[in-house]
Amino acid sequence: MIEYHLNYPLMIMTIGALIVLTMLVKSWVKRIGVPPLVGFLLLGLLIRLVQSHWGVLGTGAGGILDLFAKIGLITLLFRVGLESNLRGLLKQLRSACLVWVGNVLVCGLLGFVTAFYFLSLEWATSIIVATAFTATSVGISVAVWNSAEALNSPNGELLIDVAELDDISAVVLMALVFALLPQLENGGGSALCVVMGKTAGGFLMKLFAFGLLCFLFSRFVEKPITTYLKNLRPPPDFILVVTGIGFIIASLADLSGFSLAIGAFFAGLVFSRDDEAVKREGLFIPLYELFSPFFFVGIGMLVDPHALGSSVGLGAVLTIFAFATKIIANGLPVWILRDLPSGSLIGVSMVPRAEIAMVIMSHGLKQGALAVPPRVFNAMVLVCILTCTLTPIIVNLLLTRWPQTQDTI
After folding, report:
1. Residue 225: which of 254, 246, 250 has the closest Cα?
2. pTM for the whole structure
3. Residue 393 Cα distances to 144, 145, 344, 364, 400, angstroms
4. Residue 345 burial (CB count, 10 A)
5. pLDDT tens digits, one per residue of 197-223
6. Are 347 and 331 contacting, i.e. CB atoms less than 8 angstroms apart?
């Protein structure tokens, strides 16, 4: 049995202090118009600095905080899946798919070109950065659209639909990329293509089987469960059991060789088609608000202070391309399909990179320096902070210039 020199009272005090701090940080940064996740990232970096200098938490503390970060990851991706409106997506599927295809291809391609050719990063690292570039964190922009009472406009609905497709494709691409990572680290070439085809084929078959099991659960098992659970009292018991099932599905995905992120997202999708589960999604918010900050605090703790200096310039360049890729990939198709104001609004609104992009980069960091070196990870954290801070300001200005209403065409 491994014995850790862990000060449990201090560790429990730290968890309590973190809960208090994350709530206070959220309140403070909102007052200055900064997304809470930025404050959580900086809080995690501060903890990393304190722990590296004084080691007050003792050996093994990182493992406990990492567990809370994983729980935060599950709640984060579970909510993303739960809020995915697959039925509503079908209404604008044609327009959304055109924008989404361009988004994945252009963002992925430009992200790879930027990383591999312009910044001279390794082949595997460039693929991971490109995958992170395809993701978005539309929740950052949605808050601005909602405040402007523009979310129910046709452009607002298209924004949500494209973002949902973004989430689905980014999570699947992440799983595929990390399944291929051992081959990607060996570099490109024809040999890679052959191995990639075999590995990707096996992975996609396994993913299809897992997705099929989730569909069968959603089709035949989920409804009877929620029908029974809706009579539980008090009301929070319902969503607590649903969340517990989500944790089980997430762990099964991880044990099957995928990841907790994939499992949590699929678990959310399983329940997203059930009106009863979605209707009571508000009961999940306290759990989400409690645990999701730990994911971003954990990301901040992964930042290497020694690599910060070499990451600023890299992060600045990646931020410029992060803006450019989304504006081109999403804005241009919408401009062609609708008009310039619509293209500008949706293009800029899709710029933020946060939850899924950071999931991708943190997973890559844990694979070793050949996948994601510390300076690249630090740079992508900077991209997250800048895109999530600057985008709401720009979107607010654009919505002021081009107000969106229910009658907008």
Report:
1. 246
2. 0.82
3. 9, 12, 14, 31, 11
4. 29
5. 666 677 778 878 888 888 888 888 877
6. yes
